[in-house]
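WARN no homologs supplied; continuing
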Amino acid sequence: MKALITGIAGFAGSHLAENLLAHDIKVCGTALKGESLKNLKGVKADISLVRASLDDVTTLSRFITSNKPNLIFHLAALASVGQSFSAPEKTMAVNLLGTLKLYELLRGRKYVENIVFVSSADIFGPLSPTKMPIKPDYPLRPVSPYGASKAAADLVSYQYYCAFGLPIVRVRAFNHTGPRQQTGFVIPDFCSQIAAIESGKGHGIIRVGDLSARRDLADVRDIVNGYRLASQRGRAGESYILASGKADKISSYLKILINHSPADIKIKTDRKLLRPVEVPLLVGSISKAKRQLGFKPRIKIEKTLLDTLEYWRRN
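OK structure emitted
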């Protein structure tokens, strides 16, 4: 088997490449021109790579024809919810139109056995606690440009399955973190600031946004294992939620990190880090993924947080 990962040099893409190689699946992937390959340093010699964006259809078509991948994992996207509010048009262009162009390239290629489209919990929007945990068949009501772009691409994925027979499995991944995730996301934002404080005078202020929101936070290594399972056991046309299945306040994650730091750290809310619209609670139901995919999160959140903090201490 051979897999193509779009966005292979990114946070989740690099972890997925490692997971697939460990399961004897050959790997090729796409990365942007000028994008750092630092995340791939452990597997770079074992993969084939092309520098191309999703709208470079000529280069992508040649690369796909040359490699003939059986499995497609579509991860490439602009993934920051917060940054999407200031760049809604670009977010939609990459996340929706890029997905559409990829599917057009894949139509008629008989060797493609399964396509995993990586969607997001943000497609569901805010829901009352009585509606939790979120199930895969809930209506899509996104409130951020990022969520809207992923919801639109999610619907296009279903349409291409129905109309053109593309074997697309949609995976709605809830929040996940771990080593290599860059700033712009809550846990690496915390960890990078703590590491900077530790390397300085050993005391300082960590700037935060809304700490009251409750998030279902999983380890990236568990989530990408779910992607692999979806490619092997997922049913075309179906959608699955991958998550930890439980939620805690953002403040509790920060408390764990601060408690494992020798530095004297004070917390200050920065209004610039507050979003125009905040989803107060997100927790996903993984019962369908457990039943049909055999998905089961194994890494405890404390290990995830400390591994991420150690990554930022080294970097």
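Residues 2-177+218-246+284-299 form a domain with the Rossmann fold fold (CATH 3.40.50.720).
OK
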